[in-house]
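step=encode ok
step=design start
structure_in=
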């Protein structure tokens, strides 16, 4: 993903600091150290072959981002809007679970929480098959969307954190194991962005066909957390 800002509907994307994963409804104080973001280039299509990359860890490029608005206010914090657990095999849009109404304009961040999948039998567990695109819905990846009925048409140009196993900077987990995939994906920094669209947000897998997809054990689909920045510390 390119350094700097990317337009998101009526806002921009910014890279975010790493955070402590929260239970739904919890808040964390903001910090503003430099963060890192994985980068790479998709080099193929289709997911019917065994992953060839054996890179044990991601190779992110350091990127310093600006702090959220009013980051110096002592009471300021991120407020959790819940998690969205993806639908690996059905491909339906899954909304963040505290989001009963359209989101207000504001500064948001998304963090990887848990879960991996397989895009074909015998493949490695992963989150994305290829590097997720920030400007277009990349094939065999997860995307952020504001469209509940046809997720890809509501693409929000935000790279959902998590590893991929094909192409540049691929990070195939040791032995293709589920636990190793989760551990690697948790090293990804949260993604920050401005959101002004006034719609709901959810996640959906952009993949076809879905019939060869395999969810992680015990329903371990890829899962992300959404948080909104509150300069005053008051949470929804």
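sequence_out=
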């Amino acid at each position: 993903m390119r350094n700097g800002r990317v337009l998101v509907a009526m806002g921009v994307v910014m890279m975010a600091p790493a955070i402590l994963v929260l239970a739904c409804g919890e808040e964390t104080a903001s910090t503003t150290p430099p963060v890192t973001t994985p980068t790479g280039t998709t080099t193929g299509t289709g997911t019917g072959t065994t992953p060839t990359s054996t890179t044990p860890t991601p190779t992110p490029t350091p990127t310093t981002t600006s702090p959220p608005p009013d980051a110096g206010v002592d009471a300021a914090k991120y407020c959790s809007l819940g998690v969205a657990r993806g639908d690996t095999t059905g491909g339906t849009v899954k909304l963040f679970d505290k989001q009963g109404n359209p989101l207000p304009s504001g500064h948001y961040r998304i963090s990887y929480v848990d879960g991996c999948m397989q895009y074909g039998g015998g493949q490695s567990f992963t989150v994305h098959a290829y590097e997720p695109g920030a400007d277009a819905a990349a094939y065999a990846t997860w995307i952020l969307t504001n469209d509940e009925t046809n997720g890809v048409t509501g693409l929000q140009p935000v790279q959902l954190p998590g590893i991929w196993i094909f192409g540049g900077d691929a990070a195939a987990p040791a032995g293709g194991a589920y636990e190793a995939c989760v551990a690697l994906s948790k090293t990804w920094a949260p993604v920050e962005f401005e959101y002004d669209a006034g719609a709901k947000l959810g996640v959906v897998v952009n993949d076809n066909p879905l019939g060869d997809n395999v969810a992680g054990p015990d329903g371990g689909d890829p899962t992300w957390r959404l948080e909104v920045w509150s300069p005053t510390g008051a949470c929804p």
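step=design ok
step=annotate ok -> The first strand starts at residue 6 and ends at 8.
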